[in-house]
Amino acid sequence: MSNEWNTRTKLVHSGSKRSQWNEVSEAIFLTQGFVYDTAEQAEARFIKAEPDEYIYARYGNPTVAMFEERMAAIEGCEDGFATASGMAAVNGALMAFLSAGDHVVGSRALFGSCLYILDEVLPRMGVEVTLVDGRDLDAWKAAIRADTKLVFFETISNPTLEVIDVTSVSAMAHEVGAIVVADNVFATPVYSQVIEQGVDIVVYSATKHIDGQGRALGGIILGSHELIRGKVEPYMKHTGGAMSPFTAWIMLKGLETMDLRVRAQSTTAAALAEALDGHPKLARLIYPGHASHPQNDLVMRQMGNGGTMLSMDVKGGKEAAFRALNALKIALISNNLGDAKTIATPPAATTHQRLPDDQKQLLGITPGLIRLSLGIEDSQDVITDILQALEHA
Questions:
Q1: Domain's final residue, options 201, 219, 254
Q2: β-strand partners of 153
Q3: For the chain, which terminus, N or C, has the lower number of CB atoms within 10 Å?
Q4: What is the DSSP code string of 165-229?
Q5: Tens digit of pLDDT for each residue in 204-260?
Q6: How confident is the model over 296-320, as a mean pLDDT?
Q7: Do both 317 and 371 map to the same domain?
Q8: 148, 292: one domain
């Protein structure tokens, strides 16, 4: 039945399981283990656990399963494995499929921790990594080889909001039998159905738009039943990156309002982009939904909306950007995103601080860059706040 529902209905009802008391809100099964009626039942469950049969919270839990099933329903895929954080999801989605001697092609515009895995961790394991300009289809074509095992990218990059042509890159990867793994956090499942566009495995930091209220860390890896239960689950359950039941319950509550929040945030982001267009204090405005974005046509084809994130490059560098940040009255200075509250982040000084200066320059992460995650406050109040802050730049 849930396959016939629209997204907003799935976000409220998909995957729900009720106990004998028929509770309205999903129950939290806050337990680390489960009891068996007989020794024979214990043995049988360890041989093969059937659906709704559980062994240990690191392997699975009824509350966590509800979150996994709801996310799979809205993503339009078969299965998912919930993780302790977004980076646990990224790490698990890569490690579950890679071995020494494999070759990976990735977009070079990535979140700092993702770059650390590709630049530092995978090479130490003997995995060869090639990073390309994700916007350049010719660069992807040149880098993907007959022996390429996996392709990884952020559908919209953090923090410079570069956009990947998901369908084209996925098709190139599949020509050589490579698995496509995409981090879809910035695009969100509200606007971006990357499984339909050719991605095999999609990861989310549930900490962001899914929770949306700054309460808990979490992540999820989504894909086919074969890939999730055959590759991802064995790696995750034995390495300990599982989501807690309480966190899963928080995420279920967040999902109920995600569509409403994301659409409101995107409306504010689009209005702010119009207000900032041509602003004399800005060297650069980056919003995928604005006509000035060089990939605006691609964004509209893939998502139909510019999303909740906007970046602006303040003239005068770090000092000017910091003056603007310190003048904010509504927007908060923090490093999270996708929150109900508007959040401003200076990436060069925080999330991407440890990148070498030449890499920052290559990626366009300038000292004056401010990444804005728009919240659900009144749009005009947020716009007024950003404009008055820029007067201090």
A1: 254
A2: 182
A3: N
A4: -HHHHHHHHHHTT-EEEEE-TTTHHHH--TTTTT-SEEEEETTTTTT-SS----EEEEE-HHHII
A5: 999 999 999 999 999 999 999 999 999 999 999 999 999 999 999 999 999 999 999
A6: 97
A7: yes
A8: no
Q: Is the pLDDT of residue 1 over 60?
A: no
What CA–CA distances, in Å, run from 119 to 90, 114, 128, 170, 359? 14, 9, 10, 22, 12
- 294 pairs with which residues across the strands? none
CA distance 187 to 141: 24
C-alpha closest to that of 112 among 323, 301, 319, 363: 363
Enter the pTM of the model: 0.95
DSSP assigned state of 27: P
- Strand, coil or helix: 51: coil
How many structural domains are present in the chain? 2
Residue 385 structural domain: 259-390
Same domain, 50 and 99: yes
- Which of the four pLDDT bands, split at 50, 70 and 90, describes residue 2? low
| Helix, strand, coil percent values for the chain (each to nearest 5) | 40, 15, 40
Tokens of 106: 């990735």
| Residue indicated by tokens 């806050």 | 30
CA dist., res. 114 & res. 355, Å (int): 12
Residues 372, 229 share a domain: no
Spell out where 31-158 has E strands. Answer: 79-83, 103-107, 128-132, 148-154
Outline where 14-61 has alpha helix (H).
39-47
Q: What's the pLDDT score for residue 50?
A: 87
- 17-46 tens-digit pLDDT: 898 889 999 999 999 999 999 999 999 999
